Amino acid sequence: MKIVAGLGNPGETYAGTPHNVGFDVLELLAARLSGTWRLNARFKARLSRVKHEGEAVLLAQPQTFMNLSGDAIGPLMRYYDVAPEELTVVMDDADLPVGRLRIRAEGGAGGHRGLISVIAACGTQAFARVRVGIGRGAGGEGLIEHVLGRLDPARDELLRRAVAAAADAVLCLAARGVTEAMNRFNGWNAADAEQPAVS
Fold first, then answer.
1. Which one is catalytic: 19, 52, 112, 146?
2. 33: buried, middle or exposed (CB in 10 Å: 19+, 13-18, 0-12)?
């Protein structure tokens, strides 16, 4: 089994905000793969078990709030005996322009508190991550206001297209590995593409 975890914050207040783009990617994946979501109190997560090209995949949306994401992902990995190399984490990245993707096989957290929590829970940085660029706030808008706020329509459209491409990247990664996904999707930019890449 593989686990794909999308990072975000639970509740309607945060739905559709840039910080919740990891949740958005997983919502799209569940819809594409005919998955059904269930809230699991034991693991503090919404879970959807799906299959992709014959491989069992557990989609997970931690309900712990972003900064404690590892409190859900760590126990899931231990319960299902999933090795770090079978984990993919999907999250926002304010250091990437809106709509750009970056995939890595491993690495540091880059200051992302949700990822810091996952690394601590896993005891390793050696798991794949799909980062979706959300950019930074315009003018005097602070980072917190930006990630938890709303984008203007033009930038929101770029982000929606990046969500679709990120879902393609996750499916590619699950079926053909992180190297193939990196080769195909690293640097993908919604501003330069007429349509999201197709897996």
1. 19
2. middle
For the segment 38-91, what is each residue's pLDDT rounded down to a tens digit?
A: 999 999 999 999 999 999 999 999 999 999 999 999 999 999 999 999 999 999
DSSP string, 152-169: -HHHHHHHHHHHHHHHHH
Decide if 19 is catalytic. yes
What does the pLDDT read at residue 190? 93
Residues 6 or more apart whose Cβ sits within 8 Å of residue 65? 9, 10
Write the class of the CATH domain 2-185.
alpha beta
User: Residue 2: which of 61, 49, 62 has the closest Cα?
Assistant: 49
pTM, whole model, 2 decimals?
0.92
Q: What residues contact residue 66 under an 8 Å CB cut-off, 6+ apart?
A: 7, 8, 9, 19, 113, 114
Spatial neighbors of 107 by CB under 8 A, at least 6 apart, are 125, 129
For residue 78 the two structure tokens come to 């231990």
